[in-house]
Amino acid sequence: MRAPAKVNLYLRVLGRRPDGYHELDSLMFAVSLYDELTIQVNPSRRRAISCRVSGAERVAGGASNLAARAAAAMLEHLGVRCRVAIRLRKNVPFGAGLGGGSSDAAAVLRVLPRLLGRRLPAATLRAMALRLGADVPFFLTCRPARARGIGERLSLVAGVPEGALAIVVPPSRVDTGWAYRTALPGLTSGRSVSRLPPLPRRLDAVDSWFFNDFGVGIERAVPEVRVCRERLARLGARATVLSGSGSAVVGWFDDMAAAKAAASSFAPPDKAYAARILRSAPRPQSALAAALENRGRNRG
After folding, report:
1. In a structure prediction context, what are the per-residue pLDDT tens digits for the chain, which is 300 residues long?
2. Are 132 and 73 in contact (CB under 8 A)?
3. H/E run at residue 274
4. Is 245 in contact with 151 (CB distance < 8 Å)?
5. Annotated active-site positions, please?
6. DSSP codes, 13-70
């Protein structure tokens, strides 16, 4: 199955809560940049979870991986003993504000009960997802949403205009905790509540809601981010913004051809991708369906 990345095209940090978390107001969109997961379940008298990671992005596998932690939480909740083998091909850059780890965890939560012949209420899945991370509930559906609270209060948004995105990730990555401590000077709990403008139906209004409270601070601390964002603007992006706490920057283009042209102009050590906004979560495939699809592609 595919686990998509996300972008925040609007992000306000409203203040710090007594529990140490921050109140957010954000627009979140899943995009067609994916990690790839395969999950295999086998009978066993004890619980055993393995997670092997491959791909362009070097992240830890094993029990510490968020996908493995999601599997462990699900088996515990269901009271099931079995062996779960997760193979994760990591394509979504980490430390970039793209939510790849959260998406991997949500994909496991969506699919593992089905493999075990069980069904869970949506509210139960959301509660389990939130315990794994604030972004994880969003990835259960991957539908365009406004996220408030710490990111867990989701309301679907409609009228998202058509377009395409170029996503650029510079070599420097940003730790989220560091970003909150460093890139939000003067933040207080007294900041006024965000008033998000309505989503535009015309591309020339997109720049009215492209905004990120982290932007100025991250660009000062990580100049590569500013360089990438300004270059996207010169390449014709209608609007540009930092995604999440960075370091990925996003440019909005008229169509996929323009986004691909912009992305292809970047070279290593930058990583650049062209992507479209998704309207729902990708459906998982059985091994047989995946094999047949690949066979068809090879014949083509």
Report:
1. 999 999 999 998 887 777 777 888 999 999 999 999 999 999 888 999 999 999 988 888 899 999 999 999 999 999 999 999 999 999 999 989 999 999 999 999 999 999 999 999 999 999 999 999 999 999 999 999 999 988 889 999 887 888 899 999 999 988 888 888 877 765 544 455 556 666 665 556 777 789 999 998 999 989 999 999 999 999 999 999 999 988 999 999 989 999 999 999 999 999 999 999 999 998 877 655 555 455 555 554
2. yes
3. strand 271-275
4. no
5. 6, 135
6. EEEE-TTS-EEEEEEEEEEEEEEEEEEEEEE-SS-EEEEEEESSS----GGGSHHHHH
* Inter-residue contact 236 to 259 (CB < 8 Å): no
Beta strand pairing status for 82-89 and 48-54?
parallel
Q: What's at 153, amino acid-wise?
A: R
Tally of helices (H runs) and strands (E runs) in the chain: 9, 11
Residue with tokens 């509540």: 193
Taking a C-beta distance cutoff of 8 angstroms, is the pair 88, 65 a contact?
A: yes
**Residue linked to tokens 């998704």:** 278
DSSP one-letter code for 116: T
